[in-house]
Amino acid sequence: MSIFSIFSKDKKESLDKGLEKTRESVFSRLTKAVVGKSSVDADVLDNLEEILISSDVGVETTLKIIARIEERVKKDKYLGASELNRLLKEEISSLLAENNSDDVTEFTTPVGIKPYVIMVVGVNGVGKTTTIGKLANQLKKAGKNVMLGAGDTFRAAAVEQLKIWGTRVGVPVINQGMNADPASVAFEAVTEALKQNADVVIIDTAGRLHNKVNLMNELSKIKRVMQKVIPDAPHEILLVLDASTGQNAIEQAKQFTLATEVNALALTKLDGTAKGGVVIGISDLFKIPVKYIGVGEGIDHLQIFNKNEFVDSLFK
Which of 240, 246, 247 minimizes the C-alpha distance to 288? Predict the structure, then answer.
């Protein structure tokens, strides 16, 4: 067996384990919903709607899935309740395919952009700094020269936490301590990244969702100062969301997409929740690619989101 095969097997096992609570929550209830039913009738669809909403797929996305299944049932009068799993899997796969760009297959950065600047946003407590550390680890393992910028300067713990991750992963962390101007930290980080010929620089930002105007002004300022050094920075604005918060994660996504041009998502803590359906809802509502998912506490438990693997594991 090749090293790649071993890695793929380990990754799949981590994903299966990470989605275990969601899978058990959805499918134990789905099985009960079709007991004694010979066809997918109105009662079955009502039960399915309730199951999806309670799994934090969201009302709008759930109604879309139900409508698609109803259409499928109308076309084939012989669809039995036992086939509901297959129908649901196919429609969720179709929805994710519509709302995500092509799956990224490895931890890397686009060819020809150096340094590739990632600005990471998200509220406190979602696992933002941890995600940055794990992403830095994966990129370094892929052969990239990585630097970090400790731009969440309103919490001493955030700066120290990022420094600890930098030491653990073996990448430099640009920091100016607590209460420094976040834009100044970002400016220094991208300047140093250019000097050091870094492949990628990841900038942490403050996790305060105080109000949209202040948030927008703060993030806009950080972008402006980075663009003095690298005109098209940041190349990626990665929003980190905690999947276990369900609908709160969707509300946070609304606020941050209004405040800045988010173009990638990371969903953390999928292993600790039965609300994994939020991945489907967020993908559908915001039309922003889910790029990474966190399926455990280990340093290697940040995975690239692959929609096919995700759905296969959900319906295992």
Answer: 240
Contacts of 280 (CB under 8 A, 6+ apart): 57, 58, 61, 92, 95, 96
Residue with tokens 């919903």: 33
Tell me the Cα Rg of the chain: 21
Query: pLDDT at residue 15 above 60?
Result: yes
Query: Which amino acid is it at 301?
Result: H
Predicted confidence (pLDDT) per residue in 255-264, tens digit = 899 888 999 9
HEC secondary structure over 246-308: CHHHHHHHHHHHHHCCCCEEEEECHHHCCCCCHHHHHHHHHCCCEEEEECCCCCCCEEECCHH
Residue in the structure block whose two tokens are 């993908």: 283
76-97 burial, b if ≥16 CB within 10 A, otherwise e?
A: eeebebebbeebbeebbbebbe
Q: What is the pTM of this model?
A: 0.90
Q: H helices of the chain, where?
A: 3-18, 20-34, 42-54, 59-75, 84-99, 128-141, 156-169, 182-195, 212-227, 247-259, 278-286, 307-314
Token reading at 189: 């980080």
Beta bridge partners of 290: 265
Question: Could you tell me if 290 and 263 are in contact, meaning their C-beta atoms sit under 8 angstroms apart?
Answer: no
Count CB neighbours of 62 within 10 A. Answer: 23
Tokens of 103: 């799956």
Cβ(270)–Cβ(297) under 8 Å?
no
Distance CA 296, CA 39 (A): 38
